[in-house]
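Workshop exercise sheet. Pairs work together: one partner reads the sequence aloud, the other fills in the structure field after running the prediction. Swap roles for the next sheet.
Pair: D.N. / O.F.
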Amino acid sequence: MAPTVLLPILFLLPILQPAYSKLSVNYYDKSCPNFAQIIQDVVVEKQLAIPTTAAGTLRLFFHDCVVGGCDASLLLSSTPFNLAERDYEANRALPGDAFDLVIRAKTKLELACPGIVSCSDILAEATRDLISMVGGPYYPVRLGRKDAFESHATDVDGHIALPNMTISKIIDIFAAKGFNVQEMVALTGAHTIGFTHCSEFASRIFNFSKSSQIDPSINPDYAQGLRKLCQNYKKDPTIAAFNDPMSPGKFDNSYFHNLQTGISLLASDQAMAFDPRTNPFVETYAKDQNAFFQAFAHAMEKVSVLGVKTGKKGEVRRKCDSPNSLSTE
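Structure field:
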């Protein structure tokens, strides 16, 4: 009886292959041969004009991928009938320049190859190019993703790590996506570029506890500088500090050096320097930038294929902020 049971299972194996197996680095070689060059041109122009574009796009890409997969659902706008992911509280601070980058690239690609390139592929490719442009590692990006038909803010909760979460909670969130502790620490190293609004870390530098105004895990001199910078953050919520004050525009391993000396904005980041599960990787990446780059590149390849949609499970949107067929559901 065993062979008769095994045979249909073997026939099913090709059907059960993950969607990312259909992706390919040369997906657009024939259908849109200038795809990579167009993306690169837009990336260079935008990054030179707005140096924070790289960090914003990386954050946009990650927030998109961890909620329902890398399907550009985060690019969809809300409608009178539906609140989209981009209007979820944790996503409202995502920088407009990251969205603008994708729109610019999509506009040029629609002129060159109408209806061929998905918004999700644009975001994935542009993110890699930007990381490389600011000094980070280059890694292959498999292409062929389709865009999601819909986006719901209610889907976001529990999928994005927040600054006030414990290390255990953040480890669990990453584990649910298939990432181990080492990969989690490497991906958090993305904070080597970009900035954070004062409201995200104000509780660490103002009225931290009854016995101390400042979180004792922060470098005292650094904390005083942050207090001065953020003193009016309640009146002006746009006030922000660079995540890495040592080399804010360069993708490097100084973020991990900073953790070891208490120069970190977010409590969840600083905690990695003390927790025995994460500290060994913090120490490794602080000593060895190549080790960090290799781990980050590997982890980003995994991120880039999370829950990808292919075939009829998605579409190539004509406009990145709206599905081809608007729904009122």
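Discussion prompt: The longest helix spans residues 96-112. What would you look at next?
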